[in-house]
Amino acid sequence: MSPAPQSGTRLVNSLTALSDPTHQEWLEQVLHLALTHRQQGGRPFAALLVRDNRLVASAVNRMLENGDPTRHAELEVLREGCQQGPLAGTIVYASGHPCPMCLSALVMNGISAVYYAFDNQDAAPFGFDSTASYQRLGLALKPPPLPLIKLPSPIPAATLYGDPSRE
Length: 167
Prior knowledge:
Layout: H1 9-17, H2 23-39, E1 46-51, E2 54-60, H3 63-66, H4 73-81, E3 91-96, H5 100-108, E4 113-118, H6 120-123, H7 131-137, E5 148-150, H8 157-161
Parallel strand pairs: 3-4, 4-5
Antiparallel strand pairs: 1-2, 1-3
C-alpha cells in the first residue's frame, strides 16, 4: 500500500490566503483534495471545514488506511475541527453528498450548511451511493435537516469515482 496521504491542509492554504474565496472556489479545492487522495490509493472523498471564510480543517476519507468504516471525510474534518473550538456555525464543503452517518454528525454539531459536488445519483454508477442507507433508515431529505447545496463540479463524476486503472 502507498504511504498515507497528507491531510491536504497544504493544498488549500493558498485559497485561505485569498481575501474572500467563493463557495465554488472552496468546492474546487475539496475536489482537488479528494482526487489527490484517490490517486494516492485512498477513497475518493474529502471535506473542508470553514468558518468566516477561513479554513478550520481539511480531511480525507481514511476507511482504507485505518480499516475503520467510520473514518469518512466529513467525520474526520469534524474530529480535526473540534480541536480548534466549537463547530456550530461552520460550513462544510464535501466532494459528495453526506451519508446518513455523516449528516447526523453534521446536524448534531451545528454545521450551518453543506456544499457538495456530487449527489447520490452521480455516485451510484461507481458504487458510492448512500440512497439505500437513507431508505433503510427511513430518513427523508425533504425538507433537509440543514442546507444541502449542490454546486456545479469542474470535473465529471467519472474522473473522481471511476476506475483508476483506466487512466
